[in-house]
Design goal:
The protein has 276 residues and is of the alpha+beta class. The chain has three domains: 50 residues, 2-Layer Sandwich (Uridine Diphospho-n-acetylenolpyruvylglucosamine Reductase, domain 2); 113 residues, Uridine Diphospho-n-acetylenolpyruvylglucosamine Reductase, domain 3; 97 residues, CO dehydrogenase flavoprotein, C-terminal domain (Enolase-like, domain 1). Helices cover 33% and strands 24% of the residues. It contains twelve helices and 14 strands. Strands 4-5-10-6-7 form a five-stranded antiparallel sheet. It has a four-stranded antiparallel sheet with strand order 11-12-13-14, sandwiched between helices. A three-stranded parallel sheet has the order 1-3-2, covered by helices on one side. A hairpin with a 6-residue loop joins strand 13 and strand 14.
Length: 276
């Protein structure tokens, strides 16, 4: 049970959802867009979030799409990770999504909920960062389609009253060779230590990482080091010198241990892609 009451709204259109948010915000209701509800329930129980009005967007048609159109895969933000996994239209995303939480939770966690969550793992964003995907966002200023690498800076940069509608990915990225690895320190279903996703496009290796820092990221500077002609050890040393900060240090693992795990993961990926 949540320790507070709230009003529930279920708009029929994107515009109605945006207008509802503006009206409720002006009335001081601290409105929240809602799709799966896992974060609201989890954080609400420990007093880390609060709302007096929930706007349920999970059944808006634009937020439920899942199809290929004009060489682009369109995925709605309110699709559950289970639905995405079962459809398997983006194998790297399937691999990453299939290891988020447990099976029961994945049936409730949505794509947009994971990408926009306050918890720092947000693994589902990794394949989209690698594939130069675009995100469709709607808000008071209307709709906008923008590259995810321009608006995901530690988190998806949404303005007040905006929400994620869809993610669009070119099919040429979907068929590229990939690797997705999750490392946990203690057990199969515990919180991840590090999750790494990698794509190989021609001779170019791309990597995106979650769990190392308090946010998921893709670093082109790191990739440039990994794709150089230097010996593997030198490439990895140089790549590690270009990591963002801070490196996480918590009960899951120390900063030094995380760096040790990442070093070995990068070595394994380079070897698997034949770039040694």
């Amino acid at each position: 049970m949540l320790p507070f009451d709230f009003n529930y709204f279920k708009p029929a259109t994107l515009k109605e959802a945006v207008d509802l948010y503006r009206d409720l915000d002006q009335r001081g209701k601290k409105p929240m867009f809602f799709s799966g509800g896992t974060e609201l329930i989890t954080l609400g129980r420990i007093a880390l979030t609060y709302t007096e009005a929930v706007i349920d967007i999970k059944d808006l048609p634009e937020c439920k799409v899942m199809h290929v159109s004009n060489d682009q895969l369109l995925l709605g933000s309110t699709l559950t990770l289970t639905k995405i996994e079962e459809a398997n239209l983006f194998p790297l995303l399937t691999k990453i999504a299939s290891e988020v939480a447990d099976h029961t939770a994945r049936g409730k966690i949505t794509l947009g909920g994971n990408i926009c969550a306050r918890i720092f793992y947000r693994e589902a964003v990794l394949p989209f960062l690698l594939a130069d995907s675009k995100v469709l966002i709607v808000g008071p200023e209307g709709k906008k389609m923008v590259p995810i690498n321009e608006v995901f800076k530690e988190q998806l940069q949404l303005k007040k009253g905006e929400f994620l509608v869809q993610v669009a990915t070119e099919t040429r990225f979907i068929g590229a060779p990939f690797i997705g690895i999750k490392r946990r320190q203690q057990w199969d279903t515990g919180y991840p230590l590090i999750t790494i996703a990698a794509l190989k496009l021609g001779r170019e290796l791309r990597v995106a990482i979650s769990g190392l820092c308090p946010f998921p990221f893709r670093s082109k500077e790191l990739e440039a080091s990994l794709n150089s002609d230097k010996p593997v050890v030198s490439r990895i040393d140089e790549a590690l010198s270009k990591l963002p900060t801070p490196i996480l240090e918590d009960v899951e693992g120390s900063a030094n241990y995380r760096l040790f795990v990442l070093r070995n993961l990068l070595s394994d990926i380079i070897s698997a892609f034949g770039k040694s």
